[in-house]
Design a protein that fits this description.
Shape: globular
Oligomer: single chain
Number of strands: 7
Number of helices: 6
Order of helices and strands: EHEHHEHEEEHEH
Length: 208
């Protein structure tokens, strides 16, 4: 059975442009993949574990070839459970609004929780990192209300898409499609851009 995991980083619900575009993709994907399992992971639903002192200590213990104990063991188990939810999927959909030129902090938290040795990546002292999410495919929806390609630096910078592109490549996900909706909502009519983004989402959902 094909599995799609939708990782949503927007807390805005029905008001979210990134979620609306993602829903268009999911509807088209579900229509053309009726037997697929679709897992909706709202990062704001309270189930994403923290990655604090105990988890960081556990990660360093694993790097040293040791087994985490005590609070570290519990934190490591929570991180592993979150990673296994990611790893169980064949396809990924990320809906990512721009916050302060980057990604929402909850998405960075998700990245930090699942990016663990022996799970998401391997490491060799001579060859460096190896991404372990081989054979996965991803679609990423990027939205921003002011920043956009070709606008002056006064309209912001993009540390959103480069960050997630780099992380996906590092994790071993090489087949990545992107949908961008970046209108200047202060001065421009967003309808044409919104329609184009939804059309691309619909097309990708049918063919992904």
């Amino acid at each position: 059975m094909t599995r799609l995991l939708h990782v949503s980083a927007s807390p805005r619900g029905a008001a979210s442009e990134s979620l609306a575009i993602a829903r268009t993709f999911v509807e088209a994907f579900a229509a053309t993949h009726p037997d697929a399992e679709i897992d909706q992971f709202d990062l704001w639903d309270g189930t994403l574990p923290e990655f604090g002192p105990a988890a960081a200590a556990a990660k360093m213990a694993v790097f040293a070839g040791e087994t985490p104990t005590g609070e570290g063991a519990a934190a490591w188990a929570a991180a592993r459970a979150t990673f296994e939810r990611l790893d169980a999927a064949d396809h990924y959909l990320f809906s990512v609004p721009m916050w302060n030129a980057g990604v929402p902090y909850i998405l960075k938290q998700f990245v930090d929780v699942v990016s663990q040795p022996g799970m998401l990546f391997g490491f060799d002292p001579e060859r460096g990192y190896t991404g372990l999410l081989q054979g996965k495919r991803a679609v990423v929806v990027y939205t921003s209300a002011v920043y956009g390609p070709g606008r002056s630096p006064a309209f912001g910078s993009d540390f959103q898409a480069p960050y997630l592109r780099d992380w996906l490549a590092w994790a071993g996900v090489e087949d990545v499609e992107e949908i961008a909706f970046r209108p200047n909502l202060v001065t421009a009519d967003a309808r044409a851009g919104r329609e184009a983004a939804h059309a691309r989402a619909r097309d990708l959902g049918k063919t992904f």
